[in-house]
Amino acid sequence: MTILVTGGAGFIGSNFVHHWLASANEAVVNLDKLTYAGNLANLASLQNDARHVFVQGDIGDTTLLPQLLAQHQPRAVVHFAAESHVDRSIHGPMDFIQTNVVGTFQLLESVRAYWSALAAEQQTAFRFLHVSTDEVYGSLAPDAPAFAETHAYEPNSPYSASKAASDHLVRAWHHTYGLPVLTTNCSNNYGPYHFPEKLIPLVIHNALAGKPLPIYGDGMQVRDWLYVQDHCSAIQRVLQAGRLGETYNVGGWNEKPNIEVVRTLCSLLDELQPRADGQSYATQITYVKDRAGHDRRYAIDARKIEQELGWRPQETFETGLRKTVAWYLANADWVANVTSGQYRQWVGQQYGA
Ligand code: NAD
Ligand code: DAU
Predict the structure, then answer these.
(1) 6 alpha carbon to ligand 1 midpoint, in Å?
(2) Bridge partner list, 285
(3) What distance in Å separates the CA atoms of residue 324 and residue 326, rounded to the nearest whole number?
(4) How far is the CA of 323 from the centre of ligand 2 (A)?
(5) Is the CB of 14 inside a 6 Å radius of any atom of ligand 1?
(6) C-alpha 82: how far from its chain's center?
(7) With bands split at pLDDT 50, 70 and 90, how would you rate the model's confidence at 342?
(8) Is residue 117 part of a domain?
(9) In this structure, is residue 288 part of a structural domain?
């Protein structure tokens, strides 16, 4: 048996491929375009593992996809591939519409053609799992209840609007064509292989490099953090037992204001790799211009996946963040590799000198 993963050279996708091969003895075909966010170094330890087949390509390639599906006959597709960074979507929304909306549409069509031609038994067993985000629900007031699956879609950024559009396409392909789909909407992930354009790895990277730690606006925006391995186990569980056509919100009941996250990171770094001058990394915290249209608060109500599927996260924020900081300290080469070249252009554009 084989599954097809899209975007498996990115942050969550590569963690998922490792998680899958460690826990299920089932081959993975990994289709990734290798944009700036995709990195084969994330998969280096799988180089000699015959169960992992990497294919560089675009989810929207309507010649490649039918060939890949016919050749490998996957029993499931797990769809991670996307443009994923909100700030980049503000500067240049076109790539987000192209991959997240048009690409997902083209992928759905390729998969539908493949699935329609399967024998009845394989058709029934087939799954298309779409990996989405809590950002499709918009922003919560401070005392509002966390996002349940029934919350209205109110996306506010070009990124979240493009993800919302892809969720709607997936839903429609189930309702209209009967494609056996599942959707997960997860909160903010953190952990190994996280590209240092996102808050947690950016702060670790800048702290160690003696650079400012940029806090947008007042730093009181709230995100709900989940260790990436817990997201991977949730996806695996939904794929195994989720009800067709349903969506499952994934989160660890872990809301934190950004400034608290950054201060906790500084304390961990002070402990694990103190600054030569004895000062705290917190002295590098710098308040900068806010993100345009910045969502104030996200929070996930994870009761459905917990009660229906018995999923629970394994890490607390404290254990997960400590593991994450330790991973970045032990993997300075990985960070140096991904922060060369194009990365510098982005940092210059977003944060100036
Ligand atoms: P990422 O940006 O780290 O990785 C995206 C991957 O997709 C990269 O490897 C990239 O090369 C690949 N890709 C991009 N366009 C492609 C295309 N057209 N064809 C094939 N491959 C392409 O993203 P991530 O943070 O790992 O997020 C993965 C998925 O999870 C996304 O769909 C995202 O919306 C969703 N998600 C992310 C988070 C989070 O906190 N990072 C939370 C919830 C949901
Ligand atoms: O909620 C899930 C989403 O989480 C995913 O769908 C996205 O793909 C993922 O990128 C993430 O989006 P955020 O915008 O929440 O993540 P980011 O790490 O970019 O920012 C987290 C918070 O930190 C947010 O409130 C903005 C703030 N921030 C971010 C950066 C990069 C700063 O204050 N300074 C920064 O330099």
Answers:
(1) 9
(2) 213
(3) 5
(4) 20
(5) no
(6) 9
(7) confident
(8) yes
(9) no
CATH of the domain at 240: 3.40.50.720
- Residue 199 CA to ligand 2 centre (angstroms): 6
Residues 2-37 pLDDT 10s: 999 999 999 999 999 999 999 988 999 999 999 999
pLDDT tens sequence across 177-218: 999 999 999 999 999 999 999 999 999 999 999 999 999 999
- Active site annotation includes 248: no
User: Please, what's the largest Cα pairwise distance for the chain?
Assistant: 68
Specify if 320 maps to a domain: no
Pairing type for strands 213-216 and 181-186 reads: unpaired
Per-residue pLDDT reduced to its tens digit, 90-143: 999 999 999 999 999 999 999 999 999 999 999 999 999 999 999 999 999 999
Hey, which bits of the chain come out as E strands?
2-6, 27-32, 52-56, 76-79, 127-133, 181-186, 188-190, 213-216, 222-227, 247-250, 255-257, 285-288
Tokens of 120: 């009845």
Dihedral (Cα; 198, 203, 208, 209), 10-degree rounding: 70
Q: Is 58 close to ligand 1, i.e. is its CB under 6 Å away?
A: yes
Ligand showing the shortest atom-to-Cα distance for residue 288: 2
- Within 8 A by CB and 6+ apart from 137, the residues are 147, 151, 152, 153, 154, 155, 185, 298
Both ends of the chain: CA-CA distance in Å?
51
Question: Number of structural domains, the chain?
Answer: 1
- What global pTM score does this model have? 0.98
Tokens matching residue 80: 């991670």
Q: Is position 167 annotated as part of the catalytic site?
A: no
> Which atom belonging to ligand 1 lies closest to the Cα atom of 159?
34
Residue 201 lies in a domain: no
- Structural domain including 9 reads 2-190+227-253+294-314
Mean pLDDT of 32-51: 96
Under DSSP, the state recorded for 7 is S
Burial of residue 332 (CB within 10 Å: 0-12, 13-18, 19+) is exposed
Active site residue 135: yes
Structure tokens at 122: 């394989």
Closest C-alpha among 250, 189, 249, 235 to residue 10: 189
